[in-house]
Prior knowledge:
By secondary structure, this protein is α/β, with parallel strands linked by helices. The chain is built from 12 helices and 8 strands. An 8-stranded mixed β-sheet has the order 3-2-4-1-5-6-7-8, with helices on both faces. It binds guanosine-5'-diphosphate. Guanosine-5'-diphosphate is lined by residues 128, 130-136, 213, 272-273, 275-276, 298-301, 305.
Amino acid sequence: MEAVVYVVVSVVAVAVAVVVILLVSRRGARVETDPGGVETRATGLGARLRVVFSSLDSDTWTRLEDALLAADVGPAPTSRIIERVRSQSPKTAQEARALLSDAVRAEFADTDRGLNLWGEPSVIVVVGVNGSGKTTTVAKLAHHLVQQGKSVLLAAADTYRAAGSEQLDVWGQRIGVPVVTGQEGGDAAAVVYDALESARARSIDVVIVDTAGRLHDNKNLMEELKKVHRVAGGEGGVGEVLLVLDATAGQNGLAQVREFGSAVPVSGVALAKMDGSARGGIVVAVESTLGVPVKLVGTGETISALDPFDPSAFVASLLAE
Ligand code: GDP
């Protein structure tokens, strides 16, 4: 009797294990991150494009337009991409796909996407609207630089929200880097000044400045950012002004951030929450609409979920089988 119970329990245990393994492996297969650092294969732009070119017929161009717009590529880049492919009269679906790869790649500038780090210390000013993922990106960037052997100091120049400084403080402790904060409602530029003094005294390599992003107070915000940028530049100028953009905000997000470009010289875009964007095409829209290179993509909430953006890898992944 005991032997029968033993056999039954063993069979049930093996069956449960098999079911768990199958469930876990199916889960793993659903999320694929491509070498461009952006999930495009399962639900995003890549998946839509593969359906478009399942055949080449009179409806292909409408299907392509729908797919690009639905993936957030934006109206102007969509028209340009279709025109580039169509004008070369592809004869087969395969030929059309190859031309499409080239057309999407042509939307990205051939430019150095590394961060501009110069000066002692180098200064990175991070701007963007509240909720875009700014503070998290500052923390991820600090972690990334520390991994590369650099010493980093964070400046909590969003004095408008006490929660913002506290959040940065917590990240600083976790990463093991100093954080300079100011009084709530105090002068943001004064925090930057103190941060630079402190960084020089400690021979810190890079200062990353987290700024305010209160959109409802736009005019004062832009004046404040100009002042922060001026003070952060010191004698050598600011190396990098990184604009953080929420990838899930779509075309509306783009309209909001143009203002930042007129206040401070944005030199790169960090596209946060690409893991939550089922569209992926926003990366094309950002670069061609704002005329600023996408340098980094945020792919999750964890500290290491920040990847350099590589346009060639991104395009290759779009149409990979
Ligand atoms: P801030 O107001 O612009 O400073 O935004 P936060 O850094 O506080 O981020 C707002 C929310 O977005 C937080 O819940 C973050 O965890 C989340 N977030 C930031 N970056 C990413 C990302 O790349 N992926 C995901 N999934 N969430 C992110």
